[in-house]
Automatic annotation (TrEMBL):
<dbReference type="InterPro" id="IPR033694">
    <property type="entry name" value="PGPEP1_Cys_AS"/>
</dbReference>
<comment type="similarity">
    <text>Belongs to the peptidase C15 family.</text>
</comment>
<keyword id="KW-0963">Cytoplasm</keyword>
<keyword id="KW-0645">Protease</keyword>
<feature type="active site">
    <location>
        <position position="147"/>
    </location>
</feature>
<dbReference type="InterPro" id="IPR016125">
    <property type="entry name" value="Peptidase_C15-like"/>
</dbReference>
<dbReference type="Pfam" id="PF01470">
    <property type="entry name" value="Peptidase_C15"/>
</dbReference>
<protein>
    <recommendedName>
        <fullName>Pyroglutamyl-peptidase I</fullName>
        <ecNumber>3.4.19.3</ecNumber>
    </recommendedName>
</protein>
<keyword id="KW-0378">Hydrolase</keyword>
<dbReference type="InterPro" id="IPR036440">
    <property type="entry name" value="Peptidase_C15-like_sf"/>
</dbReference>
<dbReference type="InterPro" id="IPR000816">
    <property type="entry name" value="Peptidase_C15"/>
</dbReference>
<keyword id="KW-0788">Thiol protease</keyword>
Length: 208
């Protein structure tokens, strides 16, 4: 656990996968690594789009970093804004392989369990992005691929000792997508929005 008032913050993105040869969240993580904020300890990770490696990486991060806050970013070709996911669902696609060619045998993440709600300060994030004139929407469907998978594992604390008290997922559009406000999505816009999401989450953690 981080020092009092100074949380440990994990921010993740994914690499490329079939249909998405360039993942904007990979570039986001590289851009964020230049930040040196003093109000938190940070760890930035790019994760492989693989069902077996994600839990292994979370377990290692639990041992090495023990985050208080975990903010996961992923890309969706359906997004036209910063889609703040509200709900991690216990579903997995059993027909779409990951980057290693693996297809899950079961259509759930954990047997017998239900949906899990994000513990990010969703309303505060939405207001902050709106104030910055960045497009934002709330979503209750994170899909059934690796994005929802890591969201569910992270929120459910299913990979000991990885147990952030605050965890959630944000979907973003591919670069150059025309957004709901008519602008084209860019790395600068993505970085500004991500920084707002991170800062808002830290502020709420400190208030609590």
């Amino acid at each position: 656990m981080g020092e009092r008032g100074r949380p440990r913050v994990l921010v993740t993105g994914f690499g490329s996968f079939p249909g998405v040869p360039a993942n904007p969240t990979e570039e986001l993580i590289a851009a964020l690594r230049t930040n040196h904020a003093k109000d938190a300890a940070f760890r930035y990770e790019i994760l492989a789009v693989e069902y077996q490696s994600v839990p292994q990486r979370l377990e290692a991060l639990g041992h090495d970093f023990a985050p208080d806050i975990a903010i996961h970013f992923g890309v969706s070709r359906n997004s036209r804004a910063f889609d703040v996911e509200t709900t991690a669902r216990n579903v997995v696609c059993t027909v779409k392989p990951d980057n290693a060619g693996h297809v899950p045998a079961e259509a759930f993440v954990r047997a017998g369990e239900g949906p899990l709600l994000s513990t990010l300060p969703i309303d505060a994030i939405k207001r902050a992005l709106e104030m910055a004139q960045l497009p934002v929407a709330l979503s209750d469907d994170a899909g059934d691929y690796l994005c929802n998978f890591i969201f569910y594992l992270s929120r459910g604390m299913h990979v000991p000792p990885f147990a952030p008290k605050v965890a959630g997922f944000i979907h973003v559009p591919p670069f150059d997508t025309e957004l709901s406000n008519g602008e084209r999505f860019s790395l600068d816009m993505l970085k500004r929005g991500a920084e707002i999401i991170i800062e808002t989450s830290i502020a709420r953690w400190q208030d609590a």
